Amino acid sequence: MSEGPGRGDPGDDAAGVGGGFDLSHLQAVHRRLFHGVDPDAGRLRTVVPPAPPAPGDRPGGEVVMAVPARYIRTAGGKVLDVLDRTGLRGLATGTVAAVLAELYVDLRVLRPFQVGNDEAIQVFLSELADDAGYRIDWPAIPPAALTAAGDTGDPDPLRAVLQGAVHHTDPSTGKGGGRKRREVHALADTLREVADQLRPPTDPAPHG
């Protein structure tokens, strides 16, 4: 988590996973990943994002563009409206890769949270793909490709990379769904372990 602290809307705490892959679902993913680590877990960003590093000197965590905080909910709704109620079900692999690339870039530009955007977006997209019988092989995607997509807002290079990293695992969402959900949850657990390492140490309770 590379972004600085910021206080979110307390009302967002009530958001949960609804019937579709909407902004509330993304908030629920973020809350699941960072609960107990970030006090704003699941809360939308309400402050101006940090200024991006100078071109050519970006460490890989900042974007050139970011939606102003007051427009996150509206813009996020429009971005995810494309999923409707069926998500990616019934789409060919190439189309799934193209939609995922667009969503990754749009959500990265949105930057709905002050910290942990990349982790939440990847788990959210993994769950979206899993629902349609697909798997995203994130380790096969060069980190530079993800960084460039977020920095430039251009999904085309990432779309080409995702063509080889999105795999059709089962034609029906029922078969093998439990295994794929376990894979997604394992990724979430790994990300939480990384986040736990960032938790500041607590002083031992005084004796006597």
Describe the protein.
With 208 residues, the chain is mainly alpha-helical. It has seven helices and two strands. The radius of gyration is 17 Å and the shape is globular. The termini are far apart. The N terminus is likely disordered.
What order do the helices and strands come in, and which of them pair?
Blueprint: H1 23-34, H2 72-80, H3 93-110, H4 117-131, E1 134-136, H5 143-152, H6 156-162, E2 166-168, H7 177-197
Antiparallel strand pairs: 1-2
Helix pairs in contact: 1-4, 2-3, 3-4, 3-6, 4-7, 5-6
The count of β-strands is 2
Helical content band: 40-55%
Mean pLDDT: 76
Point out poorly predicted stretches: 2-18, 55-63, 173-180
* Structural class based on helices, strands and sheet pairing: mainly alpha
Number of helices: 7
How would you characterize the largest beta sheet? 2 strands, antiparallel
Order of helices and strands: HHHHEHHEH
**Side-by-side strand order of the widest sheet:** 1-2
Cα(first) to Cα(last) distance is 38 Å
Query: What gross morphology would you assign?
Result: globular
| Percentage beta strand | under 5%
Structural Rg: 17 Å
List its salient traits:
2 strands; disordered N terminus; mainly alpha
What is the gist of this entry?
The chain contains seven helices and two strands. It is an all-alpha fold and 208 residues long. Strands 1-2 form a two-stranded antiparallel sheet.
